[in-house]
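yo, Alpha/beta hydrolase is done. seq:
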Amino acid sequence: MSEADLRRQFGNRAVDALLARISSGSSPEIDAKLSAQHFGLQPETAAAFLDAASVAGLVERRDGQVCPACKEDLGALDPDTVLCPLCQEAFSDHGGIVTKVIYRVGGHPPRAIPWVIVIHGFNTHGEWQQDLSWRLGNKLKYSAPVLIYKYGLIRFSVLVRWRHRQLARQLGEAIRAAVAHAKANRIPEPPDVILHSFGSQLFVQLLAVPEFDDLSFGRVIAAGTVIRPNYNWSERISQGRVEGVLCHCGGKDWAVPFAQYFIPGAGPGSRWGFSDVAAINVMDAGYEHGGCFELKELEANLGPGGLWDRFLRRHFSALNCDPKVFQPKVWRPMWAPVRGLVRVTGVLLMAGLAAVALTLASRVWLAVVERFV
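structure:
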């Protein structure tokens, strides 16, 4: 039973209402009859819906015992108990213990988002970050600071490793300062991180720099990522460097398949997904390189029960029944000599174009000088 099956059988309204209930974290116990109207279902259908949702892993179903006097859940009760441990009334005086089906919204309370760091790709100002920051601030009932990290426009330097390391160190220094500031303002938790394109490559470069081993992070969303699909996330999680990772893939992201040829150490993460079993991979077939950051998609992903909302605020099991979740096959990079040849050719081509541009500019400048001197 998947979320798609639930929607086909019981309708979108019921599923959306349940996901919103899960996301809110309020009143973990659900009464089928009392919640029927909220789900847009008849009472008997609501019970069937919650039974199906328990199969999908969205709710927990168990047969519970209720005191006939105080109506409280008795939990695991010794069979020889004759008095209610809560109200001290004799069960026999009120017709005996009542047995009923109890539905609970998982066993995990909603997670608070402490603060968020957003890192965009290269050759862009990351205009979508403002929309993301605004929506994160408005979806929460408390203040969760959002640090938008901008490393400026870079073009040719994306092709060389030493520049990657330099940018990663700059990122590390900025995050270390932000962490210190957050702790000074009574936010001791590590930040969640949202990455896009080349920003994701800088992030894994940062994790590899020993001088920044003191930095740890919460949950990581990588969208349009150029991180290699075989990246060892399990190791980073076991080290306590990150709590979990979501790879939001785009079926029409035509940029990242070429990353391994031009960006050292990169790969087609956004098209392939992460093969590490610790990572959660979700594929949106219609997304291009920045598809998830379009206004409509941001609203859907961050809205109650949305993909990013569930990943950031719920236990990871809340994504188990999502039909877009997949586990990719093992990925292997292109043969190194081929990648090296393409990269060298690209560097030489861009160097040639730069030389031509400089030659033309100098000629124009000389012509101007000759005309007016």
